[in-house]
Design brief:
heterodimer; A: mainly alpha; about 70% helix; B: about 140 residues; Glutaredoxin; 4-stranded mixed sheet; about 15% strand
């Protein structure tokens, strides 16, 4: 049985969310689809290969040493957060493809969905994934309900 | 560009306002419920109690437990006691429904008479839990 406790730096997650919101929002304000596309690439690549997680690397090598954000280490599994990040990256990627194909309304709606969900987590501690998992578990959907720990 | 900037500000303000209004509305709905309806029989209390609803799949539940632990330790240092009762929201669905649990983690603070004094959906920091506890203490005095 694996008893190794996994830990996560929540400040890194917060910085990740701030970066996602900032770049995507700037992309909307300046009408530059390249910015949400950039965020999408960072999120997807960073989920697959950790050394490409640009925002987290920026936190680790610049933000944390500078003391701007203090580490907030908690016992948590990174898997679900990485999944949420991958999902956000996919939604942004889809939005970017729509934007580059001149489907501006739908494309920016996709981008705003990511902004709003990241903001909900960052400012209110509200985890949409947790909400969906719980609601689907209540409905008895297979795969969303496991034994209690 | 200026129109987009303005639109962004308005949309974000609407989002934060809607979230705040919904949170206040939902909390008031719970706090207004008659005391006899509030709690299932299994809950016993004689001191401020924190009901903590979790599920195994919830990624924020472990950090929430750490925040609760931090709050308890902080209060203990000043001689105050907060009882915590954990409930798997999927196994205790009736209680979760009674407490209007929509997501996990959810924390519900009861005073020593069993009245709900605070309701938090999502990850709640230790500092906020302690502040909510202090409000109960201030009302007792």
């Amino acid at each position: 049985m694996n008893t190794t406790k996994q830990t996560l730096d929540y400040s890194a997650l917060k910085f990740n969310q701030i970066s996602i919101i900032t770049f995507t929002l700037l992309g909307f304000i300046f009408n530059q689809p390249i910015l949400p596309a950039f965020v999408a690439v960072v999120l997807i690549a960073g989920s697959i290969i950790k050394k490409f997680a640009l925002f987290k690397l920026t936190y680790a090598h610049i933000i944390k040493p500078s003391g701007f954000l203090k580490p907030d280490i908690v016992e948590d599994s990174p898997a679900l957060h990485e999944f949420a990040q991958l999902l956000g990256g996919i939604v942004l990627a889809l939005g970017s493809i729509l934007l580059f194909n001149s489907l501006f309304l739908t494309g920016w709606i996709f981008a705003w969905v990511v902004i709003i969900l990241a903001a909900a987590n960052l400012f209110f501690g509200f985890c949409v994934g947790c909400f969906l998992y719980y609601q689907l578990g209540k409905l008895g959907v297979p795969g969303f309900r496991t034994q209690s720990r | 560009m200026f129109e987009r900037f303005l639109f962004s500000i308005i949309l974000l303000l609407l989002f934060f306002s809607a979230a705040k209004i919904y949170g206040v509305y939902h909390e008031r709905q719970i706090l207004r419920r008659p005391r006899w309806r509030m709690l299932p029989d299994k809950i016993r209390f004689d001191k401020p109690t924190l009901l903590y609803f979790w599920t195994p799949e919830c990624s924020q539940c472990k950090p929430q437990e750490q925040q609760i632990e931090k709050a308890i330790n902080g209060l203990r240092q000043s001689g105050k006691i907060l009882d915590v009762q954990k409930y798997n929201a999927l196994e205790e669905q009736k209680m979760a429904k009674e407490m209007r649990v929509m997501t996990v983690p959810t924390t519900v603070l009861l005073d020593s008479h069993g009245a709900i004094t605070a309701w938090n959906a999502g990850l709640t920091q230790a500092q906020k839990l302690v502040q909510q506890f202090e409000i109960i203490q201030a009302q007792v005095k």
